[in-house]
Amino acid sequence: MAGNSKIAIYGAIGANLGIAIMKFVASFFTGSAAMLSEGIHSTVDSLNGVLLLYGIKRSKRNPDTKHPFGYGKEVYFWAFIVAMLIFAIGGGIAIYEGIEHIKHPAESTGNKMWKYGVLIIAIILEGISFYIALREFKKSKPEKATWMGALRQSKDAATFAIILEDSGAMFGLIIALIGVSLADFLEMPMIDGITSVVIGILLCVIAIFLARETKGLLIGESAVDNDLKVVREILDSDEWVLKYRDVNSMHLGPATVLLAMEVDFSDDMDNPAVEAEILTIEQRIKEKLPHISKIYIESTSIK
Fold it and tell me: Minimal CA–CA distance to 148: which of 129, 132, 171, 164?
């Protein structure tokens, strides 16, 4: 899944860098607060993409004595940092700039077509980036799951961070286009500032959602219910398993899961037979759920 993440991230970085430059140029020539906010938003999104790539690279390091389960969770940490940047820099500055322009509204200067041309081109580029992110995410999306449900269940923080960023950018651009159009048509420059505040609030909402999702992964989120259901089905179908309990799991990274459980085997089995059966159960689990790479089964008596 990391490869899919990188494709989506590279697409987002390329689109955002080009869009940011266009927005800042348009803001300089027109004095639009909404365009300035959008320029800041695109710059932050470009930086976020770089941080996510860095997180993916760091998460691929091999386990060592200090981190015996590897560095997979590092991508979750950088996704959380991205959420904070969207909230503080993207949302915060947009709201601040909007309030300033509401308090001190100023007529748009220069050729107003700068704004409309840049926004239309930006919507097209963001649309392409959003399509790439959705296409890569769709490869791991369960067939019957809704998009929102799949996002909430996804453990690939890098990919869903890009999807949230791109969706926020698309809505932000549409809001900006509506806002600057109304400000020019009604000759009410205050609307430009209000538009900036709305964009800032949108970014803050997206940041809070992303932070909430990555927090769960950082502190140790379990495997999805469907995976645990498969594990229980394997245990239930094993003729040598009498009872089991404490089937616990935790994501160590987007595609690495730790699974631990206690199992009571038949009294007719000696120690070598129990050890062989444990290996068989582990193999069956890994065949159906290859991302569960670390399995610990403890043989114990269950009363």
Answer: 164
Domain map (residue ranges) of the chain: 2-218, 225-299
Residue 244 has what pLDDT? 92
pTM beyond cutoff 0.85? no
Instruction: Judge if 2-218 and 225-299 fold alike in CATH terms.
Output: no
CA torsion 19→22→27→33, rounded to 10°? Answer: -10
Token pair of 157 as six digits: 């923080």
The per-residue pLDDT for range 36-86, each reduced to its tens digit, is: 777 787 888 888 889 888 988 888 888 888 888 888 889 889 989 988 888
- Can you give the C-alpha Rg of the chain in angstroms? 25
- Neighbouring CB atoms inside 10 A of 102's CB total 17
CA angle 64, 68, 74 (to 5 degrees): 85
Give the CATH fold of the 2-218 domain: Alpha-lytic protease prodomain-like (1.20.1510)
Q: How far is CA 165 from CA 87, 90, 134, 141, 269, in A?
A: 11, 11, 12, 18, 55
| Amino acid found at 131 | Y
Task: Read off the pLDDT of residues 130-171 as tens digits, 9 standing for 90 and up.
Answer: 888 888 777 766 666 677 777 777 777 887 788 888 888 888
CATH class of this structure's domain 225-299: alpha beta
More confident residue, 142 or 285: 285
CA–CA dist 43, 16 (Å, integer): 7
The tally of CA atoms less than 13 A away on the side-chain side of residue 101 is 29
